[in-house]
Amino acid sequence: MSREHAEHNEKACDHLLTGPNEEGVSFHDWVVTTAFYSAMHYVQHEIFPLQVGDNVYRSFNEYYLKNFKGSEKPSKHTAIAELVKIHIYNAYSAYKALIDSCHTARYTDYQTSEAVAVAARRRLSQVKNFLKK
Predict the structure, then answer these.
(1) Using CA atoms, how far apart are residues 19 and 73, in angstroms rounded to an integer?
(2) DSSP structure class, residue 55
(3) What pLDDT score does 23 carry?
């Protein structure tokens, strides 16, 4: 499912990046958000199934539920980023930048510039360039 979800989010990202709607409103914050979530699903598809020792994890959720418990567990986004750092290291810088720009667009300032939106789309392409599946 992750690959199809990634492709769906990527299409939404590209559609939103085409420009303002009829009222002249742009959705650069959503370009950034869909770029990040597309990248997140692409990397999950790349990494899973994952074998760690004798354990095979079919999905990220299975991995997260079995490996992180209690109040000290990282957020799911942090856990995925760590997996990217370990298993797709060359994509980590672009992936981390997507996390950061998405967080800003969603929680700090939704008035994202076109330049930030274009950079997010470029980073999604950079992440994809390091995938083998």
Answers:
(1) 40
(2) E
(3) 80
Q: Which domains does the chain have, with CATH numbers?
A: 2-129 (1.20.120)
Q: Please give the Cα distance from 102 to 126 (Å, whole number).
A: 16
Q: Which residues pair with 56 in a beta bridge?
A: 51
What is the per-residue pLDDT across 52-100, written as a single tens digit (0 to 9) for each?
A: 999 999 999 999 999 998 888 999 999 999 999 999 999 999 999 999 9
Nearest in space to 39 (alpha carbons), one of 118, 92, 76, 89: 92
What single string gives the DSSP state of each residue in 61-120?
A: HHHHHHH--STTPPPHHHHHHHHHHHHSGGGHHHHHHHHHHHHIIIII-----HHHHHHH
pLDDT band at 1 (very low <50, low <70, confident <90, very high): low
Q: Which are the contacts of 116, defined by CB distance < 8 A and separation ≥ 6?
A: 28, 32, 101, 105
